[in-house]
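Class, carefully examine what follows:
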Amino acid sequence: MMNTAIKPIRSDEDYQSALTRIESLMDAEEGTPEVDELEVLATLVELYEDQHFPIDLPDPIEAIRFRMEQAGLSPRDVVPFIGSRAKVSEVLSGKRTLTLQMIRALHEHLGIPAEVLLRHSGAALPETVEEIDWSRFPLMAMAKLGWIEKGRDLKDRAEEIMRSLIERAGGYTALPAMRYRKNDGARQNANMDLYALKTWCWQLLAVARETPLLTTYQEGMITKEVAQSLVKLSWSKEGPKLAKEYLANHGIHLIYLPHLPRTHLDGVALKLPDGTPVIGLTLRYDRLDNFWFCLCHELAHITLHMHGKTDAIFIDDLSLGAVEIVEIDNKESEADQWAQDVLIPSDIWNQSTIRSNPRPVDIVNLAHELGIHPAIVAGRVRKELHNYHLLTHYVGNGEVRNLFEQTAEIFTGR
């Protein structure tokens, strides 16, 4: 009769006891209760061992060496899969880690299981994205800004680095489809590097996702009056930082993220999948007037053009607004006008004599009347007169970026 004391194996003591009992039943005759007991105990022991003593996967380098020996391959024969004779030597000696590109080639051409090369049981290679050339992403610039670790093999690890960033950003679908035609809702420079642009936007999304806000954004909560209250914070020396806090209290991210080369970017407005608005500014022109106009312009997009939408994105090179040959989309014109009216109401501006005679004392007086920083008034004058050599001492040169950098507002995402 089978031992009725059989029970699940929950500890090492139970395991050792089961092994002892199995050993005593090894000579049991077929058809007896002892054989049934032996089978049950063997199943329980096997289950316990699978859970507590998993068989390690082979070392990837040993697997490569074994396959090379099995197929009669020399180090030179695997150069096409690893990249160069020097890289082959470093990989086989353990001095260089395998990249996804190498793993994909070794799996495809040498038949080495992906889970062995990836060092994880059941792991599979990520699907290839045909339209992406991973080597074109600005990895050196990212490392220089501290977004990723510096290293000599950045190009080799491009796919891993960018997949990690994209995952932090919420995946490929988290970034709305980029629109590249003129007159389609984006004010973009024709020389913009789309790989750099996407990288910047993914980094922006990653920072936003990793710094959640305590307040939930409600559609329609940002009116012109609310925005004008925001602009009045400009009187403070820490106005830009106060603006970040003000918007956070309304459920809107304001993130300073240094621009990447060839993005020609001033600002971006988009939303996280949960509907949280995100305003990203590069501050490539480090002036107070530029900060407040860019901020209000992107806020206008959120207020006027993104109701109920999480798949909209507005990408702005605001310097193009002053170039006559550039055809500006209606939404961009609306955002410009909304921003101007928030900063300086049209009726007040139209009655002012400052445009024809921009005396510093009048600029300061109008700013005082409106409760805003004189840089905003001076910036409006410069823009309308297309004279950016005028009033240079009043636009707050070099007074914004440092505010954010001093308080560690550059997010590395390491």
Remarks:
- Residues 179-185, 322-328, 409-414 have pLDDT under 50 and may be disordered.
- Residues 181-189+207-406 form one domain.
- DSSP finds 18 helices and four strands in the chain.
- The first strand starts at residue 253 and ends at 256.
